[in-house]
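User: Could you go from structure to sequence for me? I need the amino acid at each position, not a summary. Structure tokens:
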């Protein structure tokens, strides 16, 4: 019986498909992702300090502009022999501030890359380890391309988030806080104008982010679906050509590609629209502040700052205008980076769903051990003797050893790949040690299914399968499969030499044993060609 084909249907209830419903991301996904950063506490502290220095340096340089204009440039205007020494010292001070900010930015960006790559390595290792423990049934219901997409597309979105978006988001937040304090220091009234204007643009950003989040989730899922379909088509090229299925394959490919295009365009369209909106808002606010500030300075209107009541000077207005731009730009960057984070969390959600899949259960306790006969009894030994035995512990603490012979008995076995569809019913058969048994029948008759059941790739619904008189449910799966020699229906060659592939089932086999196995399989001749 051939195993069921993997499912590659598109996700339901998502943008781009019928019955689409926006989906909110679980905050637990972000919390779980950030838990991987606990191994980089020292580096994160360094990154935080550098981000803080960078933000303070940026705000300080804007504030220093007021001093530069009011204390150095304005007094020198109209002088026949101005003294530039103080002005030069001020420029050097500003250059040092910029240098500190630049070096801090360089350091935290490089450290964030290190954190990102280390975290992704840990996640990929855990994913691969989990994949080795998943039951065959999982791979029957998920395409290989869908699984590969977890290792490539979804982890790449995490890389972008950890290496770029997270650092820039935190940097922007620190910059906004530092600049806000500086604006209050200069003028509380003008800062209030900025805050009122900012409230309206934040409402727009909130709506756009809400829409793009659902589309980013759909984008990752439709991309995985597309990858899975392409992988199936590549592996099935001969079948496609034999049955002249090219046109139908192209039609299905176009449908999946169109769905991904729609979701990607919708997600990125919403995301990229925020930068122009916030930039336009920034220009409008810049003009508004310039008009209000100039009017206050010309009219001599009293200005309230953190240092007290004063009159706005040219330097204060220029410094505040620069600060306003430095306030809006990080908010624009934060909105943009937030979309990148939403996209990454969509990938993280798929990865964690994969990692939370139930592993293949194994409640067996009978193990396969090296053994020898001593005084008419089978005893366990450490060294390799060529004789194997089943080590069977009992509830009273005693052990019994049963020699590995190879007797297989199926006793009234029922089985179905799905509960509602039974493919084997009341099957009873046996194979004695040394006996050759052939299963002959049409495709789908259950030949491969029976061998899969003996290996416990699937568990039976009813009946028993005994191996040397032991119910295979009591045997640990690793020991059960180690005792069986299987020539698979599908040929798989892994990267490496032919010798390494022959040795795959027994890593301790010598070169001579591998060559002997190749000769036994009548493969030695064409291997040497």
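Assistant: Here is the amino acid at each position, in order:
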């Amino acid at each position: 019986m051939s195993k069921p084909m993997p499912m590659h249907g598109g996700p339901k209830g998502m943008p781009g498909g019928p019955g689409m419903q926006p989906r909110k991301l679980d905050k637990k996904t972000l919390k779980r992702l950030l838990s991987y950063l606990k191994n980089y506490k020292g580096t994160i502290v360094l990154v935080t300090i550098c981000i803080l220095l960078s933000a303070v340096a940026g705000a300080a340089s804007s504030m220093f502009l007021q001093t530069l204009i009011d204390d150095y440039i304005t007094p020198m205007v109209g002088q026949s022999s101005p003294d530039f020494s103080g002005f030069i010292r001020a420029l050097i001070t500003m250059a040092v501030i910029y240098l500190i900010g630049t070096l801090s930015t360089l350091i935290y960006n490089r450290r964030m890359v290190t954190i990102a790559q280390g975290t992704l390595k840990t996640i990929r290792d855990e994913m691969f380890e989990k994949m080795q423990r998943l039951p065959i049934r999982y791979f029957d219901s998920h395409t290989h391309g869908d699984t590969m997409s977890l290792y490539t597309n979804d982890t790449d979105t995490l890389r972008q988030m950890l290496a770029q978006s997270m650092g820039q988001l935190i940097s922007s937040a620190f910059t906004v806080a530092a600049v806000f304090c500086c604006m209050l220091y200069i003028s509380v009234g003008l800062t209030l104008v900025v805050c009122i204007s900012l409230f309206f643009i934040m409402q727009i950003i909130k709506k756009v982010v809400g829409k793009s989040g659902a589309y980013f989730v759909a984008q990752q899922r439709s991309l995985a679906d597309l990858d899975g379909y392409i992988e199936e088509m590549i592996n099935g090229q001969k079948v496609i050509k034999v049955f002249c299925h090219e046109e139908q394959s192209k039609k299905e490919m176009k449908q999946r590609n169109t769905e991904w295009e729609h979701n990607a365009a919708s997600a990125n369209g919403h995301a990229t629209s925020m930068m122009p909106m916030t930039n336009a808002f920034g220009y409008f606010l810049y003009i508004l502040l310039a008009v209000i500030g100039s009017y206050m300075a010309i009219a001599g209107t009293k200005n309230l700052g953190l240092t007290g009541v004063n009159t706005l000077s040219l330097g204060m207005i220029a410094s505040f205008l620069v600060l306003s731009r430095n306030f809006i730009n990080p908010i624009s960057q934060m909105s943009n980076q937030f979309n990148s984070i939403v996209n990454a969390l969509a990938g993280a959600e798929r990865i964690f769903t994969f990692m939370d899949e139930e592993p293949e259960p194994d409640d067996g306790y009978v193990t396969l051990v090296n053994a020898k006969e001593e005084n008419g009894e089978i005893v366990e030994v450490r060294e390799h003797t060529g004789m194997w035995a089943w080590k069977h512990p009992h509830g009273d603490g005693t052990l019994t050893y049963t020699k590995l012979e190879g007797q297989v008995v199926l006793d009234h076995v029922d089985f179905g790949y799905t509960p509602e569809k039974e493919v084997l019913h009341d099957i009873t058969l046996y194979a004695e040690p040394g006996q050759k048994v052939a299963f002959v029948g049409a495709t789908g008759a259950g030949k491969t299914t029976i061998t899969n059941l003996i290996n416990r790739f699937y568990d039976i619904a009813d009946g028993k399968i005994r191996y040397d008189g032991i119910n295979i449910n009591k045997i640990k799966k690793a020991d059960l499969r180690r005792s069986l020699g299987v020539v698979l229906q599908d040929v798989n060659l892994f990267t490496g030499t032919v010798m390494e592939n022959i040795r795959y089932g027994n890593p301790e086999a010598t070169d001579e044993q591998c060559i002997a196995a190749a000769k036994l399989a009548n493969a030695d001749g064409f291997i040497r060609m």
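One structural detail worth keeping in mind: The first strand starts at residue 302 and ends at 305.
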